[in-house]
Fold:
Amino acid sequence: MEDLQHQLKEKYQLKDVIISTPESNETAEILSSLGKATARYLDKKVKDNDVIGVSWGRTLVSVARQLIPNDRKNVQVVYFKGTVANSTHNNYVVEVTKCFNKCYHTQAQILPLPLIFENKQIKEMVIKDKFINEILDTGKRTSVALFTVETTEQDAMLFELGYFNDQQIKTLQEKAAGDLVSRFIDERGKIVDDQLNDRTVAIALDDLKQARESVLIAGGMNKLKAIKAALAGKYANVLVTDSLVAQHLL
Structure:
């Protein structure tokens, strides 16, 4: 396993690679395994006064459920992207927030906005609000960034939340390798739709590169293409993935 980690670090110019070993290839088992591995990593890496940037979804809630209680002081937690979604689908914001608050003795800063606005002008007007702007600025000061990638499969959470019609989904499926903090990227890690990107409330992808620990947490063979795209864009300096995906990334 150490040899595989070393090869991945060399190939993708990463400072750290953590490989989990799920007992099966079932999605629930992979997510649980990734969550445990990431929680152990955070226990070693988070320092006093750090800002932890998080997103929501199945992968992040798997991490949140496994967090190890600690006595770090003055840790801030901030969301990277809008959190208001269709209430008929659970995006796990409530549970992620509760677990991180309890573990790091803090109160997470949530972006109380739609993830995607109808047009760029409305979004730009809203993010000028003093309260919203402070949260976005905190996100830019992130020390430890925790994020995943999503596929463009029909059941991808972002598609299920109702932001896109059928034609928009089809177009994104044709152009994108996946989405990274809800910004759709191609196989080289480049944004595929500038207009959609301008309407999206999420951290700029280049800002992810500024974090001391920029941690991409993703596993399962269905995410291989999206993981490769995120690594091609060099948005992460730490990768947490499962053993099967790790082998295919070489």
